[in-house]
User: Which sequence fits this backbone?
């Protein structure tokens, strides 16, 4: 294991979110489900928080399942599988 | 299925590397798996760097990708590969160590093309934008409130940075030698439409212009001198001159590789300079040059996020011993968020002989442009019209006749065919 600026593997990396913006069509359902973590600017530019706080996981999960094109990927070390 | 005693090495630690590693694991590869990264960071998502990170919406280190935890990999970060010895089947690392492999994925990607004058390129205030540390440094410079930002190069990164600066309220000048921004990729007709939208938001666009040299005062950028003799006072300059593929470490390996990429056969395996496939090695992402089945086998190396992810999954399965069955040939797609404007495309515009606006209106800032070549649809571009893109992407994937039949859904008139303006 080489030195790294990140937390070493083994320690939980926290919630991670990525959105496939090729798929995103700005239906904005995520913005309703988790308004503090997803927002649309202009007509269809999605801005999202890729590293939300752990206590917001329920909002993030609601956003993930609400996406009509299933563009949101979430990694939650507390909920593996 | 690869035997579990076999060792896998992935060179590169970006999106393609991570997705390739995941795909190997998902396909049942259970042997040791090492990931080698030149940067000291775990794989991170690049698209937010030129958007969310520069905007200050998120810190650069929030871009670490999902999927790292639970991969069961040995990470060699901040320790770039400097050589490949196929005879001994080993990757040479910068710290002098060798990593033996039985299966190797090449996913070293690209780096920003530097400003041609190295001294000027190192001046305080002069930036390139490719990695996470680049984005963090540029963000600090933008947050400090520069008098003016100079963007050199009007491609996608240049347009993203320039429009983002306007979103931050910063004065910005974009200098592009071509006739319009994005002319090389989209043609000057569509490039002019998009350029007009950015100009409307206050980006000062200087096309047909070239920066000759950068002037400093005590090591800090103060202005740029253009070839036509004019000057632009700026304390931040972003060099956005495209990317160079990271293939130097393959020199002497016998693989067919050059600054345009490393060559792959139809399966995704790399081949050597004699055209012989190396079945232990595959490549994926920006660095992989391959024949695209949708484009008459034209050899391309694509710098697209979705391509890096999809081709890496293909290569990962291949290396794990469960080949996907057919050659990789996903329709190339990308997006670019330019300020609040979203530009998306499907297909490749190269060689287009016509372009049609099939939905919306460029003057209104929202439209679909469909590109044709020899009577077939080859690419579609949406500008703030993403929901219209999938139907057009299907036409491109099918090679549907161009121009399309009928009129635009939102306008009764026949579709006008324009000269695309590729030089």
Assistant:
């Amino acid at each position: 294991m080489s030195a790294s600026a990140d937390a070493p593997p083994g320690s939980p990396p926290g919630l991670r979110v990525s959105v496939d913006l090729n798929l995103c069509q700005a239906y904005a359902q995520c913005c309703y489900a988790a308004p503090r973590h997803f927002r649309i600017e202009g007509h269809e530019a999605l801005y999202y928080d890729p590293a939300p706080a752990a206590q917001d996981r329920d909002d993030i999960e609601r956003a993930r399942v609400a996406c009509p094109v299933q563009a949101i990927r979430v990694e939650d070390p507390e909920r593996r599988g | 299925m690869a035997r579990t005693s076999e060792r896998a090495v992935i060179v590169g630690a970006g999106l393609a590397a991570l997705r390739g590693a995941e795909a190997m694991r998902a396909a049942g590869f259970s042997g040791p798996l090492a990931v080698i990264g030149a940067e000291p960071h775990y794989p991170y998502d690049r698209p937010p760097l030129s958007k969310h990170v520069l905007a200050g919406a998120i810190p650069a280190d929030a871009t670490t990708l999902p999927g790292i935890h639970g991969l069961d990999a040995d990470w060699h970060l901040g320790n770039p590969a400097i050589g490949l010895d196929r005879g001994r089947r080993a990757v040479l690392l910068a710290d002098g160590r060798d990593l033996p492999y039985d299966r190797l994925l090449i996913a070293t990607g690209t780096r920003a093309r530097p400003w041609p004058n190295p001294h000027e390129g190192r001046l305080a205030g002069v930036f390139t934008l490719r990695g996470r540390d680049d984005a963090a440094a540029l963000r600090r410079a933008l947050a400090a409130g520069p008098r003016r930002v100079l963007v050199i190069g009007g491609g996608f990164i240049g347009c993203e940075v320039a429009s983002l600066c306007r979103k931050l309220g910063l004065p910005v000048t974009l200098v592009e030698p071509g006739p319009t921004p994005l002319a090389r990729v989209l043609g000057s007709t569509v490039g002019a439409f998009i350029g007009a939208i950015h100009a409307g938001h206050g980006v000062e666009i200087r096309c047909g212009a070239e920066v000759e040299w950068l002037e400093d005062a005590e090591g800090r950028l103060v202005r740029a001198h253009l070839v036509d003799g004019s000057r632009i006072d700026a304390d931040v300059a972003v060099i956005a001159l495209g990317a160079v593929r990271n293939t130097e470490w393959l020199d002497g390996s016998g693989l067919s590789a050059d600054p345009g990429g490393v060559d792959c056969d139809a399966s995704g395996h790399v081949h050597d300079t004699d055209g012989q496939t190396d079945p232990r090695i595959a490549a994926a992402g920006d660095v992989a040059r391959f024949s695209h089945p949708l484009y008459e086998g034209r050899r391309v190396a694509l710098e697209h996020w979705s391509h890096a992810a999809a081709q890496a999954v293909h290569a990962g399965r291949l290396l794990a011993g469960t080949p996907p069955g057919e050659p990789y040939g996903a329709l190339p797609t990308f997006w670019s968020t330019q300020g609040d404007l979203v530009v998306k495309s499907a297909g490749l515009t190269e060689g287009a002989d016509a372009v049609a606006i099939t939905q919306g209106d460029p003057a209104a800032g929202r439209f679909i442009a469909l590109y044709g070549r020899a009577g077939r649809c080859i690419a579609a571009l949406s500008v703030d019209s993403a929901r219209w893109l999938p139907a057009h992407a299907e036409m491109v994937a099918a090679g549907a006749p161009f121009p399309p039949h009928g009129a635009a859904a939102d306008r009764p008139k026949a579709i006008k065919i324009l000269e695309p303006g590729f030089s």
Summary: The interface with chain A takes residues 40-42, 45, 47-48, 51-52, 55, 57-58, 61-70, 74-79, 305-306, 333-335, 337, 339-342, 344, 366, 384, 386-387, 390 of chain B (CB under 8 Å). Chain B is about 20% helix and 30% strand. The radius of gyration of chain B is 22 Å. Chain B has three domains: 8-111+244-320, 114-241, 340-418.
